[in-house]
Amino acid sequence: MGSYTEYSSRGGSLYLTELLCTNCQGAGLELESESQAVCRFCGTPNAVAGVLCVHCDFVNAAAAETCEGCRQALWRTCPRCGARNWAGADACRTCSQPLDITTRAGTRAAETTAGRLDVQAREATAFKAVQAAGSQRRMADFEAIEARRQAGLREAQTRRDAQQRVILISVSLFVVAFVVVAALALAWVYLTR
Ligand SMILES: [Zn+2]
Ligand SMILES: [Zn+2]
Ligand SMILES: [Zn+2]
């Protein structure tokens, strides 16, 4: 088992993630208890001099009451026997009373679940926005096509109206011409009789 006394050598600002495993030199120490971390690569327990913060992994001086990294309490009192326990303890070390789950695993899982849901919600909103934009675009396309169609119809109608006017005028002229010719013919018949 390796051991650390480094926490004070760097002015106290040291997080567990900055420590390397004494066995494999890997940066993968995971908090196990107030003064012990287990290497996630080789499984070696590493003793840490000081008190680990269950909330933020900060390595605090052994006498610390609150975490230097996140200002949360490093210790808590057992509601049954009053014994002082590490803030990350599952049960009282004196009377075995189960302590509330403020363990880091629980907190992290809740954070990531909440985070995931949040991300999902944001993605869903973004997706809906894209869909809405898409349907607006489709709607705009449809409206443009419809407008062109209406314009076409209006043009055709105008053309038809013009043709009808031409036909009407032609017919009228023809009728007038016929009447005039007929009148002249009658007049000629009268006058030459
Ligand atoms: Zn290791
Ligand atoms: Zn902390
Ligand atoms: Zn207790």
Task: Tell me what the structure shows.
The protein has 1 helix and 8 strands, in the order ββββββββα. It has one helix at 104-191; strands spanning 2-4, 29-33, 36-39, 45-48, 51-52, 59-60, 75-77, 84-86. With 193 residues, it is an alpha+beta fold. The strands form 3 sheets. A 4-stranded mixed sheet has the order 1-4-3-2, with no helix packed on it. Residues 5-10 and 103-107 have low confidence and may be disordered. The protein binds zinc ion (ZN) (3 copies).
Brief summary of the model shown:
The protein contains 1 helix and 8 strands. The chain has one helix at 104-191, and strands at residues 2-4, 29-33, 36-39, 45-48, 51-52, 59-60, 75-77, 84-86.
Helices and strands, with pairings:
Elements: E1 2-4, E2 29-33, E3 36-39, E4 45-48, E5 51-52, E6 59-60, E7 75-77, E8 84-86, H1 104-191
Parallel strand pairs: 1-4
Antiparallel strand pairs: 2-3, 3-4, 5-6, 7-8
Bound molecules: zinc ion (3 copies).
Question: Bound compounds, please?
Answer: zinc ion
By DSSP, the count of extended strands is 8
Number of helices: 1
N-to-C series of helices and strands:
EEEEEEEEH
Rounded to the nearest angstrom, the radius of gyration is: 46 Å
**Main sheet overview:** 4 strands, mixed
Structural class: alpha+beta
Report the β-strand fraction as a percent range: 5-15%
How are the strands ordered across the major sheet?
1-4-3-2
What's the N-to-C terminus distance? Answer: 148 Å
So what's the overall shape?
rod-shaped
Query: What is the helix content?
Result: 40-55%
Q: Pick out the low-confidence regions.
A: 5-10, 103-107
Query: What do the pLDDT scores average to?
Result: 84
